[in-house]
Amino acid sequence: MDHEHLRLYDIPFVGLSEGEHAYTYEIDHVFFEAFDQSPIHNGDLYVRLTLDKKKESFFVLDFFVDGTIETECDRCLDTITLQAHGRQQVMVKFEDEASQKDYDDPDVMLLEPKATQFNIAQQLFEIINLQLPMRKTCEMDAIADKTCDPAVIEKLHKLQEEDEKPIDPRWEQLKSIQNRK
Ligand SMILES: [Zn+2]
User: Fold this and answer.
1) Is 152 a member of any domain?
2) Which of 24, 107, 129, 171 is the most buried (most CB within 10 A)?
3) Domain span at residue 115?
């Protein structure tokens, strides 16, 4: 989370009045590049966040995400564009470090009592990732009438088969000789 770009998702809350506050964000590839091994490489998303300050130490964040994301087809690894619509609420609570250890709720963001701001990038990343279907293929592409490339699928299958080939017995013998040394 030390990526400079993600500082855009800092929300300083000191002095915020009670009630609702609205924030909007436009998300593109720069956002996803800030996360290691993101299954989503690119996107064109609009995010609306409503921060409802219920009281000094309790906020409710209501995220609304809408747009498209780019990811890989499970079958042929081609880039595909999928629709993404999602809504999720996250509660922000203030707890000292000792009581934070018992918490493991993804819908709750815990802050140190003396915090003055929080960052929503990780929450946003997770909410967007939840929009990915279990199985994603070219046929689901939201923009183009796409099908998997059969030549690529065949090549991938061949590579897989080579991986599964039994190890050359001579090599195994050599290894056991080396191990005895
Ligand atoms: Zn495909």
Assistant:
1) no
2) 129
3) 4-144
Q: What is the pLDDT of residues 121-160, one digit of tens each?
A: 999 999 999 999 999 999 999 999 999 989 988 988 888 8
Q: What's the rounded Cα separation, in Å, for the pair 136 and 117?
A: 37
- DSSP codes, 16-83: PPSEEEEEEEEE-HHHHHTSTT-S--EEEEEEEEEEEEEETTEEEEEEEEEEEEEEE-TTT--EEEEE
CA of 80 to the centre of ligand 1 (A): 8
In a domain, residue 66? The reply is yes
What pTM did the predictor assign? 0.81
Q: Is residue 155 part of a domain?
A: no
pLDDT in tens, 103-116: 677 788 989 889 99
Q: How far is the CA of 74 from the centre of ligand 1 (A)?
A: 7
